[in-house]
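User: Please fill in residues for this 151-position structure.
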C-alpha cells in the first residue's frame, strides 16, 4: 500500500493542459488586485473634499492598469495612500498651489509631501517605461516640426 501511495504522490503533478497552473493562478490574482484597486478608488472619490471630473477618474484608472505592482511606487505606503497621491497629482495639475499636508484625508491615510513627490516621480518613471519610445535619425534638425502648429 505504501508503494502505491508513493507512486501516486510522485506522478500527481499538474500537466500543462490543466486549467489551474501557477501562471494562471498568478494572472487571476493580479486581476483581482486591479479590481480591488478600482474599488478603493471609488471609495476615495467619495471621501475626498473636492470634485474629480470623469476624465480625471479615467486617468487614474489608466494609472492603475499600467502600474501592476504598487510596491514599485512605495513599499511602505498602502494602496489607498498611493491612490490618494494619484488623486492629488491631478488636483495639483488643475490647481498648482495645492498643498497635500493641508488636507485631513492625507493625514488620515499617512500621505505627506515627501511621500507624494516620491510616489509621483516613480509613477512617472513606470509610465515612461511602458510607453514605446523610438528614435528617428535625421540628417538635419527640423525645428519647425518641433514647434506647435495651429493647423
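Assistant: Residues filled in for all 151 positions:
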Amino acid at each position: 500500500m505504501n508503494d502505491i501511495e508513493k507512486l501516486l504522490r510522485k506522478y500527481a503533478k499538474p500537466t500543462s493542459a490543466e486549467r489551474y497552473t501557477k501562471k494562471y493562478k498568478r494572472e487571476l490574482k493580479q486581476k483581482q488586485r486591479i479590481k480591488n484597486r478600482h474599488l478603493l478608488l471609488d471609495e476615495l472619490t467619495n471621501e475626498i473634499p473636492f470634485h474629480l471630473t470623469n476624465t480625471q477618474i479615467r486617468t487614474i484608472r489608466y494609472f492603475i492598469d499600467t502600474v501592476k505592482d504598487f510596491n514599485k511606487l512605495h513599499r511602505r505606503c498602502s494602496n489607498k495612500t498611493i491612490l490618494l497621491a494619484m488623486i492629488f497629482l491631478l488636483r495639483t495639475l488643475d490647481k498648482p498651489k495645492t498643498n497635500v499636508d493641508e488636507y485631513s484625508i492625507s493625514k488620515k491615510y499617512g500621505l505627506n509631501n515627501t511621500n507624494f513627490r516620491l510616489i509621483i516621480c516613480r509613477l512617472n518613471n513606470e509610465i515612461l517605461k511602458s510607453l514605446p519610445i523610438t528614435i528617428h535619425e535625421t540628417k538635419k534638425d527640423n525645428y519647425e516640426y518641433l514647434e506647435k502648429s495651429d493647423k
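For context: Residues 90 and 138 are 36 Å apart (CA to CA).
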